[in-house]
Amino acid sequence: MAALIRPIDPRPVVVHLINSLDGGGTQCALVRLLRAMDHRTNRHVVVTLRDAGILTTQLPDDVSCHALGTAGTSRTVWWKVARIIRFWNASVLHARNTSCWADAIMAATMARSATPVLSFHGSETTRPLSKRVRRVGRLARCLRAKWTSVSYSGRRQLCTQMGLTESMVDVLPNGVDLDRFTKPIESNRTSFRAGYQWDDDAFVVVAVGSLTEIKRPDLLIDAVASLSPALPKLKLLFIGTGPLVDVLRDQTRSLGIESAVRFSGWQNDVSTALAAADAFVCASDYEGMSNALLEAMAAGLPVVATDVGDNAIVLRSGIDGILAPPGSARVLADAIKSLVASPSLRRALSASARDRVRSLSLQRTSNAYDAYYEGMTTPARRYSAIHKNGQNPEFHPWRKFVASRTR
């Protein structure tokens, strides 16, 4: 590792440990959070276990990034993390999701100065957390690590599978930058659709997320295929990439709907695509608190989402969107068909969704994180802004509803 030169700065340091900044949902959320936070109280440093990734250029100017460049599994990368912690004399080491937990615990134990925070953003499968993750969790409990989750469903999962209590897990929900999503300019909408060879009067459904089994893009393709004979103007756009892309392309060909389905790949900014679409669908079997769902609501899109994770907390079925049970292409098709058939329903859901999502603005989320870190770096104010049961008071309008969903 190259020699480091630490600037003279009295602010306590929070180190964020993450696999990379290559453009995934968790990575994008971290970068946007760091850009929104108040840096006058704490200094923030990012450490990536692998190569830094394309989002590094979007970090605020005063946020340093150390890319460790690890390829595959490494038994010594935690030592490099510990060295960085000691160099910055960091007060907090915040590990972003389970893949970083073990290295964070080892590094914090060696460096001693930083309190480890293990953050849970969700799983890539519906299976329980692995034995390795649970072993790390047991060690973390012995070392009095702190725990956070971006969703209430994630907190329940940690409590059930890790043996934690609700009071041990602080919920810091995701937030959305409302200013990024405005009403579409008609010329932009037209040019965007023309880029995919779709007409202005096409009904465009957009899905944002990784093309993996847990997101169930196959179900969404089946739903569109079942509707295509009666709704030839129906189109589907996938934004994201993943291991299933070739399989999904084959599926569209076998169903004869290649011209109705497009795969745009990964996009850093989805605001243009959302502004040009007519509806958003989340077909997942598992979600925590979906950033894609929040962004679609902020863009004022009518939403169809499966009733998993915190979707039912964010979205009131029949008011802000349509909730559907997971695993059914027919149910998704029926929900999409109802949106196509009723412009008045689309307008009502759109207006309500945008109003609803104001309770989860990025500014509220950044304020919550600022208070959380300040509580850890300023002992006299330790956790003064965090609710006793781990619920952040910034989101108090939802407490009763959250309680009813989590009993």
Give the topology.
Layout: E1 13-18, H1 25-36, E2 43-48, E3 64-67, H2 77-88, E4 92-96, H3 101-111, E5 115-120, H4 131-142, E6 146-149, H5 152-162, E7 169-171, H6 186-195, E8 203-208, H7 217-227, E9 234-239, H8 245-255, E10 261-265, H9 271-276, E11 279-282, H10 291-298, E12 303-306, H11 311-314, E13 322-324, H12 329-341, H13 343-357, H14 362-377, H15 399-406
Provide the descriptors you would attach to this structure in a database record.
407 residues; alpha/beta; Rossmann fold; 2 domains; 7-stranded parallel beta sheet; 6-stranded parallel beta sheet; 39% helix; 15% strand
The CATH superfamily of the largest domain is known as: Glycogen Phosphorylase B
The CATH class name of the largest domain reads Alpha Beta
* Largest β-sheet summary: 7 strands, parallel
Percentage of β-strand residues: 15-25%
Radius of gyration: 22 Å
Strand line-up across the major sheet: 3-2-1-4-5-6-7
Q: How many helical stretches?
A: 15
CATH architecture annotation name of the largest domain: 3-Layer(aba) Sandwich
Describe the structure.
By secondary structure, this protein is of the alpha/beta class. It has 2 domains: 13-175 and 362-406, 3-Layer(aba) Sandwich (Rossmann fold), CATH 3.40.50.2000; 178-359, Rossmann fold (3-Layer(aba) Sandwich), CATH 3.40.50. It contains 15 helices and 13 strands. The chain has helices at 25-36, 77-88, 101-111, 131-142, 152-162, 186-195, 217-227, 245-255, 271-276, 291-298, 311-314, 329-341, 343-357, 362-377, 399-406, and strands at 13-18, 43-48, 64-67, 92-96, 115-120, 146-149, 169-171, 203-208, 234-239, 261-265, 279-282, 303-306, 322-324. The strands form 2 sheets. The protein has a 7-stranded parallel sheet with strand order 3-2-1-4-5-6-7, sandwiched between helices. Helix 11 (311-314) links the parallel strand 12 and strand 13.
